[in-house]
Amino acid sequence: MIYNLGSINLDYFYSVPRLPVAGETLATKEFSMGLGGKGANMSVAVARAGGEVHHIGSVGEDGIWAIDYLKRAGVDVSNIHSLQATTGHAVIFRDDDGENLIVIHQGANSMQDKDRIAAALLNARPGDILLLQNETNLQAFAAELGHGSGMKVAYAAAPFDVNALKEVLPYIQILVLNELEMAQLREQTGNRPEALGVDVVIVTKGSDGCVLYSKELGEKHVPAFPVNPLDTTGAGDTFTGYFLAHLDLGSSIEEAVLGANAAAAVMVTKKGTADAIPFALDVEKFLG
Ligand code: ATP
Asked: Which residues does substrate bind (predicted)?
C-alpha cells in the first residue's frame, strides 16, 4: 500500500507565440485546463500502474472535481479534505519552442494538518510506502511519523529546496530527483548521491534515462527507451509513481526502474499531464 501526501492542483495551460516579458500584455493562442500537482500526478501514476494508493491532501471548495478525477482514476480519496480555501493552481505559459513559464499558487496544498496526517497513517503497516514531494507543508512531520512506524519513506525532491530535503533526509529510504535537482544538491552541499545515506537514489536524466545508486546494487545507468517526445511535462511524476507501484507490488529495484522508464517513455509521446499517464496495459504493449 502506498500513502501519498501530495499536492492537488488545477493546471491552466496557455499556448503563447513566445513567453511574455515584464510589463507586456500578450494574447494566447489556445487554452486548456487539467488536473496537476506533482502529488496528484504521482497518485494517478501509481493507480494506473496497478498499485494501491491513498492520497493524503486537501483542496478548496472549488476542487471537488479534482477529488472526483482521482477517485475515477482508482485513487483512495478518503483522506483528501475539502477546506475553506482556494485549490492549489498553476498558471502555465508554453511557447512555440516548448519553453514554459509557470507560476504556482499553493492554496489548500499548504494547509495540511498534523492530526489529519496522523489519522490517515493510522492503518499503515510496516513496509507500506509513504511518498512525499515538496509541494505541501508538513513533509518532515509525515516523514518522521511514517519512518517511526516502519514505513518505507520515498521523497521526490521537487520543486528542489535544499532545506526541505535536509529536513526529511534522516527519515527517507528512497530519493528521486532529476539531473538539475541533483546538480543543485551537489552545488549546495557538495554531496554525491551515494553519500546521502539513503538506500536508493534515482537521478532521472530525461532522454538519457536515469542513474540508480543503491547500497545493494551500486551505481547503474539505465538508458531511456527511444521515442519521439511530444510533451515531457509530468514525465518525472509518471516515473516515480510507476517505480513505487512496482516496488510495492513486489518487483526488484531493477525491474521497477525498467517499468518506470517504459511508462515515462510512453507518457512523453502524448500531450497533457495526468491524462497522458499510461495504463499498465499500454506499458506492457510498449514493452512487447
Ligand atoms: P518533469 O519535471 O517534466 O516531470 P523531470 O525533469 O522530473 O520531468 P526527466 O528526467 O525529464 O524528469 O524524465 C523522467 C523520466 O522520463 C526519464 O528518466 C525517462 O525515463 C523518461 N523520459 C523523459 N524524457 C524522455 C525522452 N525524451 N525519451 C524517453 N524517455 C524520456
From this structure: 9-11, 37-41, 135, 237
Ligand 1: distance of its center to the CA of 205 in Å?
Answer: 6
Asked whether the CA dihedral 49, 52, 56, 61 is positive or negative, the reply is positive
| Closest listed residue to residue 250, CA positions, set 32, 82, 52 | 52
Q: What is the pLDDT along the chain (288 residues), one digit of tens a residue?
A: 999 999 999 999 999 999 999 999 999 999 999 999 999 999 999 999 999 999 999 999 999 999 999 999 999 999 999 999 999 999 999 898 878 899 999 999 999 999 999 999 999 999 999 999 999 999 999 999 999 999 999 999 999 999 999 999 999 999 999 999 999 999 998 888 888 999 999 999 999 999 999 988 999 999 999 999 988 889 999 999 999 999 999 999 999 999 999 999 999 999 888 999 999 999 999 999
Q: Which residues are catalytic?
A: 237
Q: Could you give the CA distance from residue 112 to residue 80 in angstroms, rounded to a whole number?
A: 10
Task: Identify which of 87, 90, 74, 86 has the alpha carbon closest to the alpha carbon of residue 4.
Answer: 74
10 is in an annotated binding site: yes
Question: Is 11 annotated as a binding-site member?
Answer: yes
Cα(236) to ligand 1 centroid in Å equals: 5
> Grid cell 490517515 — which residue?
120
Q: Ligand 1 centroid vs 114 CA: distance in angstroms?
A: 33
Burial class (CB in 10 A: 0-12, 13-18, 19+), 132: buried
Residue 235 CA: nearest ligand 1 atom is 4
Here the ipTM equals: 0.98
